[in-house]
Batch of 2 targets.
Target 1
Amino acid sequence: MSDNNYIVSARKYRPSTFASVVGQQSLTHTLKTAIASGRLAHAYLFCGPRGVGKTTCARIFAKTINCEHPTADGEACNECASCQAFNNQQSYNITELDAASNNSVEDIRNITDQVRIPPQGGRYRVFIIDEVHMLSNQAFNAFLKTLEEPPEYAIFILATTEKQKVIPTILSRCQIYDFARITVPDIVAQLQRIAADQGVEAAPEALNVIAQKADGAMRDALSIFDQVVASTEGYITYQNTIANLNVLDYDYYFRLVDTFVAGDVPQSLLIYKEVRDKGFDSLFFINGLAAHLRNLMVAQTPATRVLLEMDEQVSGRYVDQAAAVSAGFLYRAVDLCCTCDLNYRDATSKQLLVELTLVKLCQILKPVEVRRDGAAPTVSPQPQPAPPQPQPVAQPQPVARQPQPVAQPQPVAQPQPAVNSQAAAGESRPASIRRRPATTVASADAGSVRISQLTRADDTSKPATNTGHVRREPFTDEQLLDAWKAYIATHPNEHVIVSTMQMSPPVRSGENQYTITVASAVQETFMNDNKAKWLNVLRDTLNNDLLSIDITVAETEPEHAILSPRELANDMAARLPQFRKLVDELGLQLA
Ligand SMILES: [Zn+2]
């Protein structure tokens, strides 16, 4: 409106007939039928989210019931004197009150006073009260009297976004219409019409982004559309739209799922880094990922594809990727994202939590690779892990696809600079994390063996070997269980051991012989590696050196991790040189 007759789209394209209201077909059909049959109520309640057409429909309704020559299918003619008065906002037969800002008794009295005045040049006077739930209690009561005994010509249309806040005495006097969110395809279709009308070229993908951002509200969609049109000079592409609206390119999610399928942990972490470098919040990211996985899930079955709520061109890409993964994978993946979301607020290191979620996502289909040190190529065989031995870990190529590769190269591009300086570039912690592993790497190749040796070296309390005397005091299952619980209670810092013990009580398998069944191979390895530590305490407690406990892995899904993300991280960092290396090279923060 400011200069050059510019009118915002929300206003310029406000529907003037029921037929042109977007996305509320069945509701507008009912209204038209009611009007055509002359069965009008005195009060209507229009409920629904903001921006879905409640006020617009109320205005069309008011115009239509006053039209002198309604069309055969119950629409206003838009030509008669009454219609023109409505269209020019000069009709005296419509009164609007926004209760959000006018909610006092006086405000409602103004309305009720006017109700007494009969219509001029029409049959009905229509009173629209927007956000009616905002009226004060007194105002409600003052209004109720009028609502109970309205004059023949008075019709009230109450609109609200929060039906549950409207008092029952009012609800019971109204015909209630529930407006639905407008679907993305409906919004896209409308935007396409408007773009064509304005001579704006707009990619369907871009309009899809706008529609999704609008979250079911046509008015918002039109405002966003105006904003994008203004900054793109009439040529709307997917790229300039997401840049303008600060939306995360879904290409990241497509690429991530590819890394999950390939079990490519490093690449998934690098993509996450790209996202962070662009300034996107981690929680936003993980929820976006969950939404993407959910979209793949519904894209797998033709029957549920309607739930994609997308333009066909865009949904095609989801259908393609969905075909490349199993439903089981997707269920598990969505579940992992939801768990991450749930734990996010409590996590000390949110970044680490997200990274571990990505690691787990990569492990769904390729669980073995990360578990053992079998991934030999990534492990530097050299005792001195000085330079980052670039080749294996931080594959740079896929990253190059990105337009802004500025941030990526670091991990790779500086081959020589000492590990520490690199780590320092990211966080201060990794440097110290690096230290400790460096000695372990030197000691042996295989992670599990290495740790066992270290543990044994540290272990000073092995009574049997120290004294040569073998203790063999008999004990009951109950006594073992008590010793078990005592260990749990007295070693709160040994997270992995304690949580495993909590989940897996010992079961007798022979004389002095017991078995525990753990949920994952990671736990099995960890418990075995640290066996000297916990078993000796039990032996001491029971005064019996013959006690032996075997560890087996449950046959159920290994992903039922009992480890908390941090435990898993520490565990992995302790056992897997290539994971540690990755942490260092990416400058990630551990714990
Ligand atoms: Zn008319």
Target 2
Amino acid sequence: MKTLMRKFNKTPAPPKASKEEKDDFFIKDLFLMATADARELPPTLEHESLAAAGLGLRCDIQFRSNGSPKHVLRVFKRTFPRLHEIDKFYICTKMQGISRQLTMQHYTPPAARLLKRLAGKMIVLVPLKKGIVYDLSEEMVDCDICEEAVPITLWASHIDSCTEKIHRPRKRKTY
Ligand SMILES: [Zn+2]
């Protein structure tokens, strides 16, 4: 388990910001819904508990501009390991402004260039037919950075905040 976690910690270094390479990536914010066939983003109040369940909002996720649908799916699954619990999901976008309404865009992960073209920065993944159970597992894992025991469902967001405390100033958007 320890070695696995150490491997997990090593996120690939961000691409060098050289001019030519810069255009080869783009970023989107991703949101994974719990409810099947949802038509609206949950209110901001719920986002924290969603994040605690390995769902909800993850910011600044990087995609290769020329990535295949497989690449896009891989990034989705890396961002949300809980996607493995469902067979299919819609790719939606949120309407501009305060409306929480979602617009269905694709039934399967599109190629990156199509994803990039979708309006706005936030992409919402909505389970199709079968939702994701919104409960917290009791299982704990040890964080290699702060050495605290962390619930397994909180792991992904913990790694972010834990490394963020060390490396990055806090920047989080609300939707
Ligand atoms: Zn930690």
